[in-house]
Amino acid sequence: MRDTRESRLLLVLLIAIAFALITVDIRGGEDSPVDGARQAAATVFGPIENGLSGAVDPIGNAVSAVRESGDRHDRLAELERENTALKAELGSDDRSRSRLKQLDGLLKISGQGQYGIKGAQVIAIGAAQGFSWTITIDAGADDGIERDMTVLNGDGLVGRVTTVGPDTATVLLATDPDFTVGTRMETTDELGFASGQGDRPLRVELLNGKAEIKKGDRLVTFGSQADKPFVPGVPVGVVSRVDPSGGGLTRTLSVTPFVSFSKLDVVGVVVQAPEKDPRDTVLPKKPKPAPTPTVTVTVTPPASADGLNQQEQ
Question: N or C: which end of the chain has fewer CB within 10 A?
Fold first, then answer.
């Protein structure tokens, strides 16, 4: 339709009629005179609306599903983050419990031996100062640490301090081939020298080539002059093998250390030696041997020949 004066008048007339019908419909309420026409229009156009609605609903549902899927993905990601955080928290608690246990053992051994110690944590491990078996601890000169001090943990001898900085120190481990410490055998007091052999057991040379030693015997540190580098009585290890003496002046032992050097974390540096040599009192109590089961066998004597004859009769 072209935009003419007549078309504009027709448009105005249609709009006026529409407003009039709306006014009549509203005022009429349920008895509206246009209700019949509205129902007829619903009858004609209702199926078309339903068809369009049915065609549009899958699209709407798909959009809603995508939106809900995104929400579920976000919730899943949130749950995964919470799970990861919980695992980290539990792991942190496990580490805290482990360190608390190590600290408890350290305090126990220092109390038994009357060692004045400075607690420290291992912060590095590896080659340092030309040594191959060393650790670095987070305590140094500012904490009262000096060269040639004994280092131990809750299990026993760890090593000795070799280099000291303001905040850190380097410890030569007892497993290093350059490490040597005087030892004393439990109960027998036999003296010797223990040397490191890397990841192998310690090698101990007893001064008495005829000493009676057996597997399972234990050793502690003998101590040094002025208690440096070693204080006395620190547990060293357990005899795992005894070499034949062969008539030599010394006797060689293989000793498994008490300390697990691959799990070092909390250690203590002995800053004050005990007033009295604790000797072997710091050693842990020996486990009680498991009872040997006994088997009682009851033998039933065979029946006599006369008894058999009587039974046959």
Answer: C
